[in-house]
Amino acid sequence: MHRLVALVGPSGVGVNELRRRLIEINPVTFQGAVPHTTRAAKSSEESGREYHFINRELFENMVYNNRFLEYGEYRGNYYGTTINAVKDVLKSGKICVIDIESHAIQSVRTHELKAYIIYVKPATIECMKVTRQNAQITTSYNAKRPYKEEDFQEMEEAARKLEARYCQYFDHVIVNNQLQDSCAQLLTAVRKAQDEPQWVPANWIRPINES
């Protein structure tokens, strides 16, 4: 069975875009886990494809029963990725690629999932200024507001805190200087993850009741 690959990084560093591009490059090999949500489906959406659309009561029941790797609320609706959604991808013979918040690292780093965790690190502030400015020029007129100096500083500070707390769990680190280059690095890292043995906690391989 293929490994679960979990991407983690501070907000704004491009984790979701990297995941999306990797799946786009080779959808036969890579797939994301379909999340659950309590929001209404749009006319172009189909349950089980973009999202599993469920009601709030069922979602909260699933939270209570620890069915989610992580979940959150956005604009009054719940969103979350279940353990079973990841398993479904792995059982289909594909590599499951997800992006997670740092607090969910422990949820995927288990005996059951054995996630390969890739940390996506922001480039230097100077480099980020250049790449974000270029992106702003090439995107449409209704793009998000331009990045400000404090946005880069906040991202750098968030990365520092994330690394200080979780660096021991990272199996691989990518510095997101240029999206295309980072995507190539990610592809190499994911392939490597499937072929090489991984250092794992001893309790993953020893029986739990062993004295």
UniProtKB/TrEMBL annotation:
<dbReference type="Pfam" id="PF00625">
    <property type="entry name" value="Guanylate_kin"/>
</dbReference>
<dbReference type="InterPro" id="IPR020590">
    <property type="entry name" value="Guanylate_kinase_CS"/>
</dbReference>
<protein>
    <recommendedName>
        <fullName>Guanylate kinase-like domain-containing protein</fullName>
    </recommendedName>
</protein>
<dbReference type="InterPro" id="IPR008145">
    <property type="entry name" value="GK/Ca_channel_bsu"/>
</dbReference>
<feature type="domain" description="Guanylate kinase-like">
    <location>
        <begin position="2"/>
        <end position="191"/>
    </location>
</feature>
<dbReference type="InterPro" id="IPR050716">
    <property type="entry name" value="MAGUK"/>
</dbReference>
<dbReference type="InterPro" id="IPR027417">
    <property type="entry name" value="P-loop_NTPase"/>
</dbReference>
<dbReference type="InterPro" id="IPR008144">
    <property type="entry name" value="Guanylate_kin-like_dom"/>
</dbReference>
